[in-house]
Amino acid sequence: MMTNPANKPRRHFLGRTGAGTALLALAPGVKLVDLTLAKDEDEPASDETRWGLLVDADRCTTGCRACVSACEEEHALAKTSRTQLDPQWIRKVDLVDESNDRSVSIPLMCQHCEDPPCVEVCPTGASFKRADGMVLVDKHTCIGCRYCMMACPFNARSFVHEEVTGQKSYSPRGKGTVESCTLCVHRVDNDRTPACVESCAVDGHGALTFGDLNDSESTVSKTVRSQPHRELRPDLGLNTGVRYRGV
After folding, report:
1. How far apart are CA 128 and CA 121, in angstroms?
2. What is the pLDDT of residues 128-169, one digit of tens each?
């Protein structure tokens, strides 16, 4: 089994956090896009599509942060204190196979589960899954209880502790809410790839492949069918939208 040598107690990507409530503080004039829709009111998200991401650990190198930097820039995830309180929608994790000492470096983000634990425990419905498999957070109804953070087995959600400035209109954020990777839903709904995937292809090593897992002709679907891959924590039966090769 691959483990994180720097943090063995969290080898299963389990996280702990406190619970509480806080008020949403979006910047004046910033409105939350209706993320349940794809593109416009006439084209809702459909279960005929299942968006997925394949991470090739053999191509992902230690020290490369192209995907992380692209995510931070795309969603204005400004670093304020450089502490564990800073938002992390993607983080690089170094793993070691204890059976042979082989090490890999992979990006870890929301896994966009088919049966997401975060959605199950959310008391307001703020955490929800679109028909096309994207797991998102409605910032207007999030009360900051952080139950979703405790339920996530991948420690993939962040709590906004401080006032937010410079946020993007397509990616509103607010103090007192929980947030995580959206697979750049605003890009995908406009026929573009997520920022991390685009950056990895240009500045990284081509370790990320994005597409429709339900489309037999998509690159990601063909790769998943033809090459060995795995989910993280397959024992939980979550059928994640993010898959990994070489782990």
Report:
1. 10
2. 999 999 999 999 999 999 999 999 999 999 999 988 888 899
Beta strands in the chain (DSSP E): 2-3, 51-56, 91-97, 102-108, 127-129, 135-137, 158-159, 178-179, 208-212, 242-245
CB 51 within 8 A of CB 208: no
Tokens describing residue 243: 């898959």
d(CA 152, CA 127): 12
Whole-model pTM: value is: 0.82
Chain CA centroid to CA 165, Å: 22
For residues 38 and 82, give the distance between their C-alpha atoms in angstroms, rounded to a whole number: 35
* Helical residues (DSSP H) of the chain, grouped into ranges: 66-74, 117-121, 147-151, 185-188, 195-202, 219-226
Full set of structural domains in the chain with CATH: 2-245 (3.30.70.20)
The CA-CA-CA angle for residues 144, 126, 52, to 5°, reads: 115
